[in-house]
Each structure stands twice: as C-alpha cells, then as structure tokens.
## 1
Amino acid sequence: MPEQLYFMDVGHNAICGGIPAQVANLTNLQFFNVSYNRLCGQIPAGGNMPRFDVFSFQHNKCLCGTPLAPCN
C-alpha cells in the first residue's frame, strides 16, 4: 500500500475477507471507510486506526475489535 495514502473509501463494494494489517502502518491516512461490505476478522490495531469510529466499519459480516465489539 502506498505510504502517502490519505483517503481510502471502499464502502458499499461487497468486498470479502479481512482488513490487511498493513493498513495500520498508513500514518498519513486521514479518512478510512470500509462500511457496508462483507469483511470479517479483527480490525488492525495501532497507527491511526484508533482515530476511525464505528461508522468506518459498520455493516460488515463479522468484523470485530475496536471500535466494534471485541473478538471472541
């Protein structure tokens, strides 16, 4: 992923799978939206990830972790 990425909006795309851990390394990322997809797994921690709220991740199949419910 390009380190200079500032804006990432892939909401409403029926994307399956998980969020790559490398997303947490995008230190310039100011906006992140993966809502309304079919993503599963734990939301990566660290980096700028804590700045993104529940609306960035809502309505996915089974995402978990901050800011959503904890993973089992």
## 2
Amino acid sequence: MDSHLRALPLDFGVERKQSMDHFLRLCFFFILATSLLVAAAFVGPAECIRRKRQLPGGGEGGKGGGVEQFKYSAAACRAHTASLADFGGVGDGATPNTAAFRAAVSHLSQFASDGGGMLFVPAGRWLTGPFNLTSSFTLFLHRDADIKEWPIIDPLPSYGRGRDGPGGRYSSLIGGSNLTDVIITGDNGTIDGQGAFWWSQFHSNKLKYTRGYLIELMHSNQIFISNLTLLNSPAWNIHPVYSSNIVVSGITILAPVHSPNTDGINPDSCSNVRIEDCYIVSGDDCVAIKSGWDEYGISYGMPSQHIVIRRLTCVSPTSAVIALGSEMSGGIRDVRAEDITALDSESGVRIKTAVGRGAYVKDVFVRRMNLNTMKWVFWMTGSYKSHPDDKYDPNAVPVVEGISYSEVVAYNVTMAARLEGIPSAPFTGICVSNVTVQLAKSMKTPWYCADVEGVSSGVTPAACASLADQGAAAAPCPFPTDASPMDGFQLQQCTYTKSSDA
C-alpha cells in the first residue's frame, strides 16, 4: 500500500475517488491525443512527472513500513530522523493522525540547532488535520498522505479579508510561520485535499470563511518543496507568502479543470523564487504571482520579485498558464519564464490589474513557449473588477511596463492577443518578437490593443499598430543573461536511517 496524506473535511470513510479517476483518464487521453497531433512542436506534457520508485523494504499500514534506510536528494540533510509510526500514527485510512503529526514535529523541533530533524511518513493512508512545521525540518512522504479539521485563522494583512468572503480563513493543511530551512519532499508522495466538499460549499455560498490551502508557509526563509503529487486542493495548492529563497521542483498538481480557485503555485510577496519541472492540471491559474490586494497590499508594501519559472507544463481551460496579479498591490518585478508548454488553456501569459491596485508590474521576460488550444496567447487587462471593499484609492493607478515575449509558437488559437491598458496610464515597453500564432479560424483582427505601447518583430499574424513593427531583422526582445538569485542552489545527496530519536 502506498502512503497517502488525505484531507477529509466531513467523512473519514468516503473515498470520492471515482470522479477523479474518470477525470484523470480523460485528461490522460486528451493530452496523449493532442501530443501526437503536435509532436513536432511540443515537449511531451508528461515531461516532469516522475516515475515512482519503491523504497527499500516498503511496507503497509503505518507499521513503520520496514524502511530502515534509503537515499534521497534534498536542499539539506538532517542529523535526526523519526517515523510517524513512532508517535502512534496509524496509516489505515480511518484513524485520525493529527496528534501524531503534531507530536512528531514538536519532538523534532528540539534538534533545529543540532543538525535538524526529518519526519518520515511511511506507506499507508494517513488521515490528519492541519499541522505546522518547524525550522531545520524535513517532511518526507514515502508515497502519499490525508486531512480533517480546519481551524479558523486571521486573514492575511496584505489582503485585509478572506478571498472567498469577509473575515477569517480556514487553516491550510501543512503550514508554518517564521521558519528557516523547511523541506517538504518525498518519493512522489501524494497529498490529497479532498476538495469536492469545499467546492460544493463554495458554489452553494455556504462557506463562512475562506477555504484553506494545501501548503502555506508564511514569513519564512529557505523553503524547498519537491517530488510530490498534490490532488484536489480546496483552493490554492502551494502558497508561500512574505517569504524568500524558495524552490518548488518536480511537483505534479491535479484538480478537475472546473474546480474553483485551485491555483497551482502562488508565490505571494516573495523574493528569490525558482519554480521548475512541474506539471499542473488546474481549475485556475497554473502559476499566479501576487503581492497583496488594493489598499492592504499597498500598506504592507512587500513585492514579489526575482522569480524564475522553467519547464512548466500546464492544462487550465478557464485560466492562465502564468498570471501576474490581480492582487499585485505590493508590486511585481523581475519575473523570468522560459520553456513553457501548455495544452487547452485560456491564456499563455495574463497580466491582471485595476485602478485601486497601485504599485507596478515590470521587467517581465518570457521566452520559448509552446502552446496548443488557447483562447488568447497574450492577455493584459487594466480593468479587473475585483476589490476587497469600497475603500480602495481611485488614484492608486498601477504601472505596467517592460514586458517582453519572444520565441512563442501557438496552435489552434482563438485570438492572438487581447491587450487592454488603462486610458490614464497606458501599459508601455511591451516587446513581442519571433511569435507564430496559428488561428483556429481566420479573423480580420487577431490582435486587439488599447492603451498599450511597444514594439514587435517577426510576428505572425502581424501585431497591432500600437506595437510598432521593427522588421524581421530587428533584435529580439530582451531576456536577462545575468544569474538569478536562486541559480546557485544545489541539492545534496542524503541518507535516511531509521533512528531512535523518537
């Protein structure tokens, strides 16, 4: 039996897997068929799904799994280890393990200054409520894991309220605040948020508080999340906020494509972020960069900056592959995205903002995108109709400038671009080069542009007049050549050895 961490908000015994299995089969066959049709132009969408490996001595049901030792890669190795089974955990899919998780983390926290601690979750189905991590700590999932109980916590100060409604929000499944050196990894272990209940409550307007996320780390430094599968989050999947020096690598995120707000990875008021080799099927943006909402984000004043996104594969029929905003009131700058593949998604890159947001989105560089079946390749809007309340400042006008797109190939597209700035503050410094868009149907105006300024070259069909054509011989749009802050990050080869630290 695989280990499985699962969130069950109401009923411990209900699996709710049939609809998800059906969805995954449909998704697989869709991706396979589409990939065969466009194989010459696409990187395979399963490029970053890791093959599961059986750990030595893998067992079942939370008996410790028989695992005595194995090797793994992580940002840091730990001197002290323990198994969840050592703290009374039972991975039978029915026994609550919240107390076991919390006791294990509390116990291992004593080793933060003595080489750190690692909690191993062996094979089994682990039912648990939310729990917080500690510093100098690794959570390692053998294969999978499970949840109940969602306590109420305060809204984020840069948002002023919950996103689903005024007031507080439910705690995230795996959380932590003011931490340093935190690793969440595994052998492609699964964390299942059992989101169907939450989506139903959201659609029925029955929620009193904002839904929790699967992973949320706040005010933290040195975060490494890798080699996991995240399923059916109630809302966002991975949400680092007010944090820095973050790597998210080798993550698979799966949710029904019409599930509400199941964003994949959302760095929020974060600096020095590296997202790479991830595969996301989502009901919302695959990656969304944020930094606070209207007057609350302006007051908090913490930007998202120095962010790298590489080798991302995305399926999101109702949202963007990469979104910037709409909550961007602390500012967003220096974002670099490259080698992006998307299938059946609403837009390739979307910038969302509005009067009242203030701040800026600037110095955004995107290159080498391969897209198939899109509504828009590029989408910008300065009139996003969403505010936390009516107290926003109508004079807080955002600045959008220095946006570069190059080396983009897109097939079966409804419209090449919809670029709508703000009349009093046009979006400027837009550069589009070496872009080929194959429209699903011929249309007279494949580009729509209003209140934007910039240049283009080597674009088919030709861009709008406000992106002045510089000719095919013009230099391509810029992409930074200097190293990003997280480029020097390297993994260590570690060994887990079952110890008596518990």
